[in-house]
TrEMBL record:
The keyword Amino-acid biosynthesis does not apply. This is Intradiol ring-cleavage dioxygenase. It holds the Pfam family Dioxygenase_C. Residues 113-290 form the Intradiol ring-cleavage dioxygenases domain. Its cofactor is Fe(3+). SUPFAM superfamilies: Aromatic compound dioxygenase. Residues 30-101 form the Catechol dioxygenase N-terminal domain. Residues 1-20 are annotated as: Disordered. It comes from Lineolata rhizophorae. GO terms for biological process: catechol-containing compound metabolic process.
């Protein structure tokens, strides 16, 4: 007996999808042809299997159009919609997964998210990225080392670009009350690969949910919260840029991230810090990078940072 999906797919013109795929001309480059072929096939199968009606399709088109209308240089609603559907985390895994026989692995990647800003201020080791006086923040001393994951050697000249939200759950570009570039900074390692700076222990926060991505979350009967995290991009000459986040183990959303970005190896412990008037907590964490060569050998498909502008 034919399954329900089979009977739904066979009752429609069996040649239609092929005719759309075959409409592509000879100048389409091979990768684009392969991806479009597959996209058309999956989209058509999806519509047939679910018997999508004109009204349902139009509602989806309107959702996408609304994403466009809501997006500007401070908000990327299309990316947010992908995030709540797990797509950014999936393409991050596809792009950076390393298949390696070495005992060790480079630090795991995690999604960039929509709140990174180019040209964060360059700061001296030991500086704080907290630019306003925040009484309610848990000041934290973060420190560690950037090393080559295969040799364990320290990496000199590695730049750590770091950013996180204020205790009110907002990034500075979302919040007119924070100074420009608050809670952001770039630090460059010396010969020993070591870094140290002050930041805040981050808090969990809801992703913006007043638009289509928020409506999708509601339709799926989910919450919009991300577990407390700090973002990093680490770049060093000859090494594959690392885009990642570290997550506070104590956060109640660490097992339930609204954008599916948490990996076990990125969960960290904030420890009490004694004798430092500038911080109540300390956070040790080391980053291990893969050289371009190692990344290529291990089958990583993306050997550049996720955005051409990084
Ligand atoms: C973020 O971590 O900044 C983020 C990631 C995905 C969606 C919204 C925010
Ligand atoms: Fe974030």
């Amino acid at each position: 007996m034919a399954s329900e999906a089979q009977s739904q797919t066979t009752k429609y013109d069996p040649n239609f999808t092929r005719s759309v795929v075959n409409s592509m001309g000879p100048k389409v480059p091979p990768r684009l042809r392969k991806v479009l072929d597959s996209l058309i096939q999956h989209l058509h199968d999806f519509a047939r299997e679910n018997e999508i009606t004109v009204d349902e399709w139009m509602a989806a088109v309107e959702l996408l159009n609304e994403c466009g209308r809501m997006s500007d240089d401070k908000r990327n609603e299309g990316q947010l919609l992908c995030d709540v559907l797990g797509l950014e985390s999936l393409v991050d895994e596809i792009t950076y997964k390393m298949v390696t026989e070495a005992n060790d692995l480079p630090t795991a990647t995690a999604i960039l998210g929509p709140f990174w800003r180019k040209d964060a201020p360059k700061r001296q080791m030991g500086d704080s990225i907290v630019m306003n006086k925040i009484e309610d923040g848990d000041h934290t001393f973060m420190y560690g080392q950037v090393t080559d994951y295969t040799t364990g050697e320290p990496i000199e000249g590695a730049e750590l670009d770091v950013w996180h939200t204020a205790p009110n759950g907002l990034y500075e570009q979302q919040d007119p009350d924070q100074p420009d570039m608050n809670l952001r900074g770039r630090f460059t390692t010396g010969k020993d690969g070591k870094f140290w700076f002050y930041c805040l222990r981050p808090t969990s926060y809801p992703i913006p949910f007043d638009g289509p991505a928020g409506r999708m979350i509601q339709l799926m009967d989910r919450h919009p919260y991300r577990p407390a995290h700090i973002h990093f991009i680490i770049k060093a000459p000859g090494y594959k840029p690392l885009v990642t986040q570290i997550f506070d183990r104590r956060d109640k959303y660490v097992t339930n991230d609204s954008v599916f970005a948490v990996k076990d190896s990125l969960i960290v412990d904030f420890l009490p810090r004694n004798g430092d008037p500038k911080a109540e907590f300390e956070l040790p964490y080391d980053f291990k990078l893969a050289s371009f060569e190692q990344a290529k050998k291990s089958g990583v498909s993306g050997t550049t940072a996720p955005s051409a502008s990084l």
